[in-house]
């Protein structure tokens, strides 16, 4: 499902939560996150921008990484006040609203409301549901409205109107019927919240029910990614480590700066600190030099009018000075005076303000960031010695198949060395996981069940390769189904069509399962585009795949209706622009082509044949953590 960049989504969290005991509903914990965070997770893939309407605890909502817009109509005027605030601030032609206490809203809400609004040339589209034998139930707070209809809403509120659908009378409205009534469920009381939160983890069937047109035998890539993202939950275990040990770890909390950076107004370069008011506009300026200020050495020098101070990079700006002229731009320089040509600098040039980089009390690094070398330096500059991080994710993995042999074993006729475990090991190592290599599991029901149980009881996630294709033994599905909530998909992609995903349980423990195909290239493709994001989400990190655009050096045959991943070599063309070539045969068993490649060409579901010179999306292998 594609984002609609014309839509801003607004999460309505501006109420007083009286039915929930006057607590802030959007910030109440629910299944490992806050309710508002669940709604945000649902809305973000559907629209261009998401904001939150909140009148209290705005700092807490801002930690979700979105803008927070309070009501402009006073007196808690209900959802319409939030809608008004959103329509005033939205920078897109359409605004979509959803309440903060509806964490199950449909994954296609924006798409279907937008289609109805356009089809009926309406001002507003809203959701409705109908249970068997019951009247149709409108849900006007789930609505998509044209932002330019703001004057009508403002007048309605000014006249005292408060009913959510009361202003519809002045609009052309389109009602959109949704099949899943549970998707619009509100959690209104603390008892209801606790009941649903304690009902255990979400079921795959619940997540899949929010996806229209779900077909496990022909599932688009983006739908499978969406289901996995909605189903997987982060681990909740924090530890503090020494600064150097934090490299590559995921921050478990915001790092708040204890100081201003820089601590004082200072010079951005070697030169002379002066008063901007002394600079003549129509001729040279001559200033008397009264001393020198070095970095790290406070000085009491205070230049008077017509005076300046020689200053080194990082030196604290003397009182009264607001500009610095670089040393190389002055003329007639002596120990006692300098001359500056007119127009050499402007007022305020080359001066760094206290707190310009960071102000005391602000977030230097955000929760969920993966700590990189530059972050170590930033933390050291703040004097931070210990860093709160998520514990490392424990991932168990094994290969299945009687034909597989480990390195060092004789290669019998019809057998192959197991390469997938080494590929998976490398990809997990770069993610920073704690790794449990369980070797090769033979094609035997009891051996497979024992391996899955062992992995489940010792790891947060399990990755298998092989045994999920159409030709796999039936016991694979039976065992996984017996151990937990697992589904088998045929993804509309090449390579790597078969995929198993879900959660299994054993010995009071549970683990997420990713059953990857057996072909070597398909293993890497499936890991990068399905397992990787889910594992990062479990780690509490956000590091989405970044695609770059490059010109195709040659024609590429592509069948519309499925996503294809082709191995490529990215380089610079003769004109200096990025250019990508396919690395020969693209068979899913040809691992050599993956080794020779430095990127993957991503040909999307709706895309057809590519002509030489066309631009395509490319995923670079370097930088995949």
List the helices and strands and how they pair.
Blueprint: E1 4-12, E2 29-30, E3 33-34, H1 35-43, E4 47-53, H2 58-62, E5 67-69, H3 79-89, E6 94-99, H4 109-119, E7 124-129, E8 137-146, H5 150-158, E9 173-178, H6 190-197, H7 204-208, H8 221-231, E10 238-242, E11 255-256, E12 266-267, E13 271-274, E14 285-293, E15 307-311, E16 323-326, E17 337-340, E18 351-352, E19 363-365, H9 373-381, E20 386-390, E21 394-400, E22 404-405, E23 416-417, H10 420-431, E24 434-441, H11 445-458, E25 461-465, H12 474-483, E26 484-490, E27 493-494, E28 498-506, E29 509-516, H13 520-538, E30 547-552, E31 563-572, E32 578-582, H14 591-596, E33 599-603, E34 615-620
Parallel strand pairs: 1-4, 1-6, 4-5, 7-9, 14-15, 21-24, 21-25, 22-23, 25-29, 27-31, 30-32
Antiparallel strand pairs: 2-3, 6-8, 7-8, 10-20, 11-19, 12-18, 13-15, 13-16, 14-17, 26-28, 28-29, 30-34, 31-32, 31-33, 33-34
Helix pairs in contact: 3-5, 8-13, 10-13, 11-12
Outline the structure in words.
β7 (124-129) and β8 (137-146) form a beta hairpin. The protein is globular. It is an alpha/beta fold and 625 residues long. The protein folds into five domains: 3-191, Spore Coat Polysaccharide Biosynthesis Protein SpsA, Chain A (Alpha-Beta Complex), CATH 3.90.550.10; 238-260 and 357-390, Molybdopterin biosynthesis moea protein, domain 2 (Alpha-Beta Complex), CATH 3.90.105.10; 266-352, Molybdopterin biosynthesis moeA protein, domain 3; 394-539, MoaB/Mog-like domain (Molybdenum Cofactor Biosythetic Enzyme, Chain A, 3-Layer(aba) Sandwich); 547-620, Beta Barrel (Beta-clip), CATH 2.40.340. The mean pLDDT is 89. Helix content is 22%, strand content 28%. The strands form nine sheets. It has a seven-stranded mixed beta sheet, with helices on both faces. Strands 24-21-25-29-28-26 form a six-stranded mixed beta sheet. α3 runs antiparallel to α5, α8 packs parallel to α13 and α11 (445-458) packs parallel to α12 (474-483). Monomer. It comes from Massilia horti. It catalyses: adenylyl-molybdopterin + molybdate = Mo-molybdopterin + AMP + H(+); Mo-molybdopterin + GTP + H(+) = Mo-molybdopterin guanine dinucleotide + diphosphate. The chain crosses the membrane at residues 511-531. It is found in: Cytoplasm.
């Amino acid at each position: 499902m594609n984002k609609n960049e014309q839509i801003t989504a607004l999460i309505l969290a501006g109420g007083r939560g009286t039915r929930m005991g006057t607590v802030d509903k959007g910030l109440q914990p629910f299944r490992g996150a806050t309710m508002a965070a669940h709604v945000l997770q649902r809305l973000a893939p559907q629209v261009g921008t998401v904001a939150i309407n909140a009148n209290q605890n705005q700092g807490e909502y801002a930690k979700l990484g979105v803008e927070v817009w309070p009501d402009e109509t006073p007196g808690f005027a209900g959802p319409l006040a939030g809608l008004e605030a959103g329509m005033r601030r939205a920078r897109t032609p359409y605004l979509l609203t959803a309440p903060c206490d509806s964490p199950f809203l449909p994954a296609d809400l924006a798409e279907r409301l937008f289609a109805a609004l356009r089809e009926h040339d309406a001002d507003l589209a809203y959701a409705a549901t109908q249970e068997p034998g019951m009247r149709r139930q409108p849900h006007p707070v789930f609505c998509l409205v044209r932002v330019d209809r703001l004057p009508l809403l403002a007048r309605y509120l000014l006249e005292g109107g408060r009913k959510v659908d009361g202003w519809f009378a002045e609009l052309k409205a389109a009602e959109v019927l949704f099949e899943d009534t549970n998707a619009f469920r509100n959690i209104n009381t603390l008892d209801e919240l606790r009941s649903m939160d304690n009902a255990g983890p979400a079921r795959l069937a619940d997540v899949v029910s929010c996806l229209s047109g779900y077909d496990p035998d022909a599932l688009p890539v983006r739908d499978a990614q969406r289901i996995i993202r909605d189903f997987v939950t982060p681990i909740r275990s924090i530890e503090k480590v020494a600064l150097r040990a934090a490299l590559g770890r995921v921050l478990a909390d915001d790092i708040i700066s204890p100081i201003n950076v820089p601590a004082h107004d200072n010079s951005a370069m070697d030169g002379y600190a002066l008063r901007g008011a002394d600079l003549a506009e129509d001729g040279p300026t001559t200033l008397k030099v009264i001393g020198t200020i070095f970095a790290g050495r406070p000085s009491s020098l205070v230049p008077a009018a017509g005076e300046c101070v020689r200053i080194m990079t990082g030196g604290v700006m003397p009182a009264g000075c607001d500009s610095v002229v670089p040393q190389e731009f002055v003329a007639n320089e002596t120990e006692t005076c300098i001359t500056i040509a007119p127009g050499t600098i402007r007022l305020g040039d080359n001066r760094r303000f206290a707190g310009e980089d960071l102000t005391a009390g602000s977030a230097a690094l955000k929760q969920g960031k993966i700590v990189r070398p530059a972050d170590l330096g930033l933390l050291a500059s703040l004097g931070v010695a210990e860093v709160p991080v998520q514990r490392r994710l424990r991932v168990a993995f094994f290969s299945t198949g009687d034909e597989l042999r480990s390195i060092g074993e004789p290669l019998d006729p019809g057998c192959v060395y197991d390469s997938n475990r080494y590929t998976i090991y490398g990809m997990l190592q770069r993610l920073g996981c704690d790794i449990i290599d369980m070797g090769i599991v033979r094609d035997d029901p009891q051996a497979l069940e024992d391996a899955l149980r062992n992995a489940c009881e010792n790891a947060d996630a399990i990755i298998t390769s092989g045994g999920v294709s159409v030709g796999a033994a039936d016991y694979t599905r039976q065992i996984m189904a017996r151990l937990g909530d697992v589904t088998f998909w045929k993804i509309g992609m090449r390579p790597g069509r078969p995929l198993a995903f879900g959660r299994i349980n054993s010995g009071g423990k549970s683990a997420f399962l990713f059953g990857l195909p057996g072909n070597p290239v398909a293993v890497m493709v499936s890991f990068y585009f399905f397992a990787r994001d889910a594992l990062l989400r479990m780690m509490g990190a956000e590091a989405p795949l970044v695609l770059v655009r490059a010109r195709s050096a040659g024609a590429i045959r592509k069948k519309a209706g499925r996503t294809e991943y082709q191995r490529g070599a990215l380089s610079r063309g003769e004109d200096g622009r990025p250019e990508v070539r396919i690395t020969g045969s693209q068979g899913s068993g040809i691992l050599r082509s993956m080794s020779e490649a430095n990127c993957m060409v991503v040909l999307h579901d709706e895309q057809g044949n590519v002509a030489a010179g066309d631009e395509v999306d490319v995923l670079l292998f370097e930088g995949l953590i």
